[in-house]
Design goal:
single chain, about 450 residues, alpha/beta, Rossmann fold, Transcription Regulator spoIIAA, 4 domains, five-stranded mixed barrel, 13 helices, 19 strands, about 35% helix, binds S-adenosyl-L-homocysteine, binds iron/sulfur cluster, binds FE3-S4 cluster
Length: about 450
Amino acid sequence: MKDTDFTYNIVTYGCQMNEKDSSTMAAMLDQIGGRESSRDDAQLLIFNTCCVREHAEDKVFGNVGALKKQLSERPNLIIGVCGCMMQQKGVAEKFMKKFPFVNFVMGTHNMHQLPQIVLQVVKYGERVCAVWDSEGEIIEELPLRTGKISSYVNIMFGCDNYCTYCIVPYVRGHERSRSKDAIIREVQALSESGTKEIILLGQNVNSYQGGDDRFADLLYSLNEIPGIDRIRFMTSHPKDISLALMNAMKDCDHVCKQLHLPVQSGSNEILRRMNRRYTAEIYREKVMELRQLIPDIALTTDIIVGFPGETSDDFQQTLDLVNDIRFVTGYFFKYSPRPGTPAAKFENQIDEDIKQERLATLLKLQDGITNEYNRSLIGKTLHVMPEKTADRHAGQIIGRSDGGRTVHFLGSSDLLGSTVPVTITDVTGNTLLGVIRN
Ligand code: SAH
Ligand code: SF4
Ligand code: F3S
C-alpha cells in the first residue's frame, strides 16, 4: 500500500457518535489519498468499536479474529482498531497482544491523529498503539463528509452523568460543548453541499453549554439556516428536558416532532440505583407536558431490563409505564455488567434466563403498541423526505416521516432530499407503505 493512493473501509459498531466519527475518519483519509471501497477488497480496514454492552464487544472480537484466516489471501492488508472499546483501561494493549496482525490501535480522544498513524504504519512499518488517557480540547478543524441528504452534527462530546450501569463517561470523557458559532458554520457548510436534514448529537443535548436553555436557543438559530429542512437531535435526558426546549420544538418549523427520551426503567427504586435523577412520576409529567404542547409528537425510548436487584414488581412497573405512555418504538436491552462501572459490583445480579424472559415480554408488549401506532397512520398523509432508492423494488424510494418512521413508496430518484406528501396505505413489519398524494 502506498501512502498517497489507497483504498479503505471502516466497519462501525455502536451508536450515532461512532457513525459520525467514522464519517470524520473517512474524510480525513480522503484528504491523504484514500478512497472508500468494500470490506472485502480494501487495503486498509478500520474497526470503530463500541463497548456499551458485552455483546458489542463480542462482535468485535469475533470479526477481528476472523480476519486472521483471510491474511494469507490479503497479506498486505492493514488493520486498525479504534473507538470506545479501545479507550477502556488496558484494553488496547491486551488487544494488540491477542491479535498480533492488528497494525494499529487508537482511542476516541486522539481520533484526529488517524492520518499520522496510518502514515507511520505504512511508511515505517511500525505497529502503533496510541490511546490518550483523557480528552483534550475540542478540535474544530476536522474535515467534513459533505453532500449527504442527512448529516450528523456533534454539538457536544462526553458525559458527566455517570449512570451506574454506563461505560460511556469513562470512554468518551467529560462533557464538553462546541461553540454555537462553530456549529452554525458547520451546518451552513453542510447545507451548501446539499444536506437537507441534520441530526444533532450529544449524550445529553439538554445540558448543552451547561443547560439554562442554551440548547433551545441553538435550535432557534439552526432553524433559520437556509436549505436545512429538518432538524433532529439525540439524546435527551429526562431530568434536563425543559419547558423552553419543548417550546422550541413546537415553535421551530424545521425541528421534527420526534423525541428520543430514554426512560430506562419504570421503577423509582431502580431509577435511583441507576443514578438517573428522576422518578417515573416526573417522567410521566414531562411526557404529559410535551403532549399538551405537541399532541402528535413521536416518542421513542430506551429501557434496560434485569438491572441488579430488579424484582418482578419493579419490572411490572416498567411494563405499566410502557403500556401507559405508548411509545412509537423502543430500544430494549438486557443489563450487561461493564467493568469499572458501579452497577457491575452491585449485589443481586439477575440471572440471564430471567433477563431474557423479561426482554421477550417487553418486546412483545411494545410490538403490539408499535403495530397499533403504525396502523393508526393508514389513510393519513405524512411529510416524507426520501433519502435513497430501494434496492429490491424497482421504482421505489425510501424516506422518513417527520416522526421518524420509514416509508416506502413509488417515486423518481429526482425526489431524493425533497419533502413529499405521502398517504400511508399499508404496514409491513416496521415499514409503512404509501403513495404520493397528488
Ligand atoms: N446518553 C444516552 C444513551 C447512551 S447509551 C442516554 O443517556 O440516554 C444507549 C443506551 O444503551 C442507553 O440508553 C441504555 O438503555 C443502554 N445501555 C447503556 N449501558 C448499558 C448496559 N451496561 N447494559 C445494557 N444496556 C445499556
Ligand atoms: Fe451513559 Fe447516562 Fe451518560 Fe447516557 S446519560 S451516556 S446512559 S452515563
Ligand atoms: Fe456509542 Fe458504544 Fe461508544 S454506544 S459512545 S459507540 S460505547
